[in-house]
Design a protein that fits this description.
The chain folds into 2 domains: 160 residues, 3-Layer(aba) Sandwich (Aspartate Aminotransferase, domain 2); 170 residues, Aspartate Aminotransferase, domain 1 (Alpha-Beta Complex). By secondary structure, the protein is α/β, with parallel strands linked by helices. The relative contact order is 0.17. It contains 13 helices and 12 strands. Helix content is 38%, strand content 13%. It has a 7-stranded mixed β-sheet with strand order 1-9-8-5-4-2-3, sandwiched between helices. A 3-stranded antiparallel β-sheet has the order 10-11-12. Strands 6-7 form a two-stranded antiparallel ribbon.
Length: 383
């Protein structure tokens, strides 16, 4: 059995007759990708190239590289082990480097406490941008994540099976409206995307080839490196523009029932996987979900480093994050960013998306049990 790392197409919802975005989407500006939404947010908030931006060191290159390419200066700060930022540390760093903005990340759908930090930064004239790329459906209290900062960016393709998915929401009334005067690009063509996803689903059903084997991983890495070398994918294709959402995107967003259903399914999958894995000696980082949290992954503390390779060897789309995409500036300074480097090495992320059902959960638990039986000390190595 192959357990895919991302959700499959919901054809009933994808090809329904919804044709308009819901009213709550009026506050969004849609972009090709999350990184484009971040650049658009900075320009709208009048944070211009040359400015210093404070960013958590536990981040991927797809955030830092485009910003540096566009002329921004990046100041990294280590995070805490509970995925939070230390407000005093961030404020101190921001003041010392005269930062104009701070990026706050809600990791894996788990809310980061933004209120206190945002209040202190605003008093010092520093903009706050919330990165909700993993957290589109998560709420904190009665508000969706992304409501506390001056702006919030989203990468909804991480939650919904769509080819587009970057989005920006501005919470500040003080922004440059001229940034949004350029006509939006046409929506992406969904035909190729649907064909690829259909082929992926067939492979998952057949169980061969293993999409997460070392051979396939090496092939993907080769293709990715070749593409970057030829086209500088992270930088040269940056677009400071909006993009019309695809029909798939519109139909998913306009179906309140679908969004509610996938939220409930993801939470149920998380609870089942956490409970079963805990009984097998695994250590979940967040044993109990906060109310309103819709996680992107089930995250486990795996100091042995065996869990992800074992699951991928047996067809499960588990991973580390950001894995090979941790910025070089972080990896070269372990003394400055010890927590970010450690989390990248030891956290195991297991899929819990809406396309996963009882059989997939049972399969993952069976594999974990087999691993523990082969190496009983795995659950004791962190004691």
């Amino acid at each position: 059995m192959i357990v895919l790392s991302r959700p499959g197409t919901d054809y009933c919802t994808a090809f329904s007759r919804h044709s308009q975005l819901p009213p709550e989407a009026d506050d969004f500006y849609f972009c090709p990708r999350g990184r484009d939404a971040l650049l658009l947010a900075l320009r709208a908030l009048r944070v211009m190239p040359g400015s210093v931006i404070v960013i958590p060191a536990y981040i991927c290159k797809s955030i830092t590289d485009p910003l540096m390419h566009m002329g921004y200066q990046i100041k990294l700060v280590d995070i805490e082990r509970n995925f939070q930022l230390d407000p005093a540390k961030v404020l101190d760093v921001a003041k010392k480097c005269d930062a104009k903005a701070v990026l706050v990340v809600h990791y894996f759908g788990f809310p980061c406490d933004v209120s206190q930090l945002a209040e202190q930064l605003r008093l010092n004239g520093i903009r706050v941008i919330e990165d909700c790329s993993h957290s589109f459906l998560t709420h904190s209290g009665n508000e969706p994540l992304g409501s506390k900062g001056d702006a919030a960016i989203f990468s909804m393709r991480k939650t919904l099976p769509i080819p587009d998915g970057g989005a920006l929401r501005l919470n500040s009334y003080d922004f440059d409206k001229n940034v949004f005067t350029t006509p939006a690009k046409l929506a992406p063509n969904v035909g190729c995307y649907l064909a690829i996803r259909a082929a992926e689903s067939i492979v998952a059903s057949v169980g061969w080839p293993n999409l997460y084997s070392q051979t396939v991983d090496k092939f993907r890495k080769y293709i990715r490196q070749s593409f970057k070398a030829d086209n500088s994918a992270l930088t040269d294709n940056l677009e400071l523009c909006q993009q019309s959402p695809s029909r798939l995107f519109v139909n998913y967003l306009s179906s309140e029932g679908y969004l509610k259903k996938i939220s409930e399914q993801v939470v149920m999958n998380y609870v089942k996987l956490i409970k079963g894995s805990s009984e097998l000696g695994q250590r979940p980082v967040i044993p109990q979900l906060p109310i309103g949290c819709v996680p992107q992954w089930a995250v486990f503390d795996d100091p042995s480093g065996r869990l992800v390779p074992w699951l991928r060897k047996h067809g499960v789309g588990a991973c580390h994050w950001p894995w090979h995409e941790l910025p070089t500036a972080v990896t070269r300074q372990p003394e400055a960013y010890p927590i970010s480097i450690d989390l990248n090495q030891r956290l195991a992320l297991l899929p819990v998306h809406q396309s996963i059902g009882y059989k997939q959960i049972a399969h993952m638990l069976h594999l974990i049990k087999h691993l523990v039986n082969r190496a009983p000390t795995i659950s004791k190595e962190s004691d």
